[in-house]
Design a protein that fits this description.
By secondary structure, the protein is α+β, with helices and mostly antiparallel strands. It has 16 helices and 22 strands. A hairpin with a 2-residue loop joins strand 1 and strand 2. Helix 4 packs across helix 15, helix 5 packs across helix 14 and helix 13 packs antiparallel against helix 14. The chain starts with 19 loop residues before the first strand and ends in a 9-residue tail after the last helix. The relative contact order is 0.10.
Length: about 600
């Protein structure tokens, strides 16, 4: 017999009754029922109930075991009484009578239990992650992640893609976040960088003529943490294709993601036609470039109903250039209590409040109520109601000013309204492409123009856009894919012509010398025959988070950092030794108090 097991803890069933077996695993739970000791023995695969009574030759040894000890048992498989069968377990028809036992590894007192679903502080869970990972829900999440990655690989290879690995130690390249720098011992005073993404390398793979590339790529960004973002590193499905248009990219990646969602989404429906929404419309309708379309609410511009009205706050705002008033419809939200609650929400978000109107039945017909209704009068109020398609029992909320100042709050308010009123269908996946991103944005304080998205993207009108359009009106072949309020994909058709690239960077204030310094390798490659190409990257961590129905990305990462980008388990980041610093020619300056 094998030294540790003849079966795993998920394999035994009624057909094994009478067999002598050997199992190894962790003591999940110990129960004493009238002098008979029952142990739920757990391994990676499942749980088997084993037992010992005073007739067992190792009963006194079994009495000593505690939770999370690792043991090996030899025993005889017995059928459970019909009334004791556990249908929730694959092994629920049987149990094993222990005839021999060996303790393979004792466990000290546990900092957190494995059995049960008690909530423990995240700092404790991260410090003892190796124990936390034994818990069923987290273990299942990590296994789900493994299966999702395996499925993605099969689906990409099935479409003719080849997986190539790109360097981890490379040169610094701006991707919208801070680099992690790596000092060079061989070149004192110079630094490598960990790649924020394989952006330049995958484009060079296209220049090299490989046509279809993908990689489950590690990416490193020194970012502030969020619930849906790791502060140090993450993985993405990175892909690139040659001789393609934007639609070709969509047509390639959509079946991959649809297949993964169908395979691992637990039967939750996936919308089959993924709408393409312009960035401008997404901001207007949803207040976000990653809208949650499970919520049917669409915001609308209602400025005309407030211009010159008796509501002086909005009327005065609209006299300024670039301002508008938007409405957030709230079907079934027509109560003063709910309206007051949403007004308080806006105040907590840093705004003075949100105006509102709600419609109620007064017996002799519908009446518009609320401070705004009184100020603008019944004619304007009725026009708003008809534009928004609302009726008795409904409400609308209003925000005004420059959209950039209130758009984010409006988007969050839309989400809260959808949730609180039960309008958001939680049990499905709703995808949409966000397209037509502006290539540039203006810093409102300095007035300087800079890239708003990916600097390597092709403008939709090519060089003619740069020569004939205001930079703020230039749109790029840039796109994101949103699902249920999260950004899953970002990508672009690349700028593969050096003269257009130089012009794009010139508009953003980067002279040709700076482009050559930062991206000389890629620009040089483009002078030797570069094909039109494009691609995208899908966040693996975020995708699995959605599939696992988790709200925190650390729940689907094997060994995540904490909120302060610290590895509590292994003690990172750590202080270097003086010898290491000398070897690298570095000196650590003391922190200013």
């Amino acid at each position: 017999m094998h030294a540790y097991r003849s079966h795993t803890c998920s394999e035994l069933n009624a057909s094994n009754v009478g067999d002598t077996v050997r199992l190894s695993g962790w003591v999940h739970r110990v129960r004493d029922h009238g002098g008979i000791l029952f142990i739920d023995l757990r391994d990676h695969y499942g749980i088997t109930q084993v037992l010992a009574d005073p007739d067992s030759p190792v009963f006194k040894d079994v009495e000593k075991v505690r939770s999370e000890w690792v043991i090996r048992i030899d025993g005889t498989v017995m059928a459970r009484a019909p009334e004791l069968v556990n249908p929730k377990l694959p092994t629920g028809e049987v149990e094993v009578f222990i005839r021999d036992m060996e303790v393979l590894g004792e466990a000290a007192e546990l900092p957190l239990p494995v059995f049960g679903d008690q909530e423990y502080p995240e700092e404790t869970r991260l410090k003892y992650r190796f124990i936390d990972l034994r818990r069923e829900s987290l273990h299942d999440n990590i296994m789900l992640r493994s299966k999702v990655v395996s499925s993605i690989r099969r689906r990409m290879e099935g479409q003719g893609f080849n997986e190539f690995q790109t360097p981890i130690i490379t040169a610094s390249s701006p991707e919208g976040a801070r680099d992690f720098l790596v000092p060079s011992r061989l070149h004192p005073g110079k630094f490598y960088a960990l790649p924020q993404a394989p952006q330049q390398f995958k484009q060079l793979i296209m220049v090299a003529g490989f046509d279809k590339y993908f990689q489950i790529a590690p990416c490193f960004r020194d970012e502030d943490p969020r619930a849906d973002r790791s502060p140090t590193d993450f993985y993405q499905l990175d892909m690139e294709m040659s001789f393609v248009s934007q639609q070709d990219i969509f047509d390639t990646i959509e079946p991959v993601l649809k297949g993964v969602m169908d395979e691992f989404g637990g039967g939750r429906p996936v919308n089959q036609d993924w709408p393409q929404i312009s960035y401008k419309d997404a901001a207007l309708w949803y207040g976000s470039d990653k809208p949650d379309l499970r919520n049917p609410i669409k915001m609308q511009v209602v400025s005309e109903h407030f211009a010159g009205s008796g509501f002086k706050i909005f009327a005065s705002l609209l006299e300024n250039e670039g301002t508008e008033v938007r409405a957030i419809p709230a079907p079934t939200g027509g109560s003063r209590k709910f309206c007051d609650r949403m007004n308080k929400f806006a105040q907590q978000e840093g705004l003075p409040g949100m105006g509102y109107i709600f419609w109620r039945d007064q017996g002799e017909g519908m009446e518009a109520a609320g401070p705004l209704a009184k100020n603008i009068g019944p004619e304007r109020t009725e026009a708003i109601r008809q534009q928004l398609g609302l009726g008795v029992g409904d409400a609308a909320f209003f925000l005004g000013g420059k959209p950039s100042a209130f758009e984010g709050v409006a988007g969050r308010a839309r989400n809260v309204i959808g949730e609180e009123l039960g309008l958001t269908d939680k049990d499905k996946f709703e995808f949409c492409w966000i397209v037509d991103f502006p290539m540039y944005e203006k810093d409102e304080e300095t007035g300087e123009i800079d890239f708003s998205h990916n600097p390597f993207s092709m403008p939709q009108g090519g060089m003619a856009d740069f020569e004939n359009k205001d930079p703020l009106d230039i749109l790029g072949y840039q796109y994101d894919l949103a699902c249920n309020g999260y950004e899953l994909i970002s990508g672009a058709i690349r700028n593969h012509k050096p003269e257009i690239m130089y012009k794009a960077f010139e508009i953003a204030g980067y002279p040709a010398e700076e482009v050559d310094k930062r991206f000389g390798g890629m620009v040089n490659a483009f002078t030797y025959g570069a094909p039109p190409h494009g691609g995208c990257a899908t966040g693996i961590d975020r995708l699995v988070m959605l599939l696992a129905d988790e709200s925190n990305i650390r729940q689907v990462i094997m060994f995540p950092m904490n909120q302060r980008a610290e590895d509590l388990m292994l003690g990172g980041p750590s202080e270097p030794t003086n010898e290491q610093l000398r070897e690298l020619g570095l000196r650590v300056l003391p922190q200013e108090s």
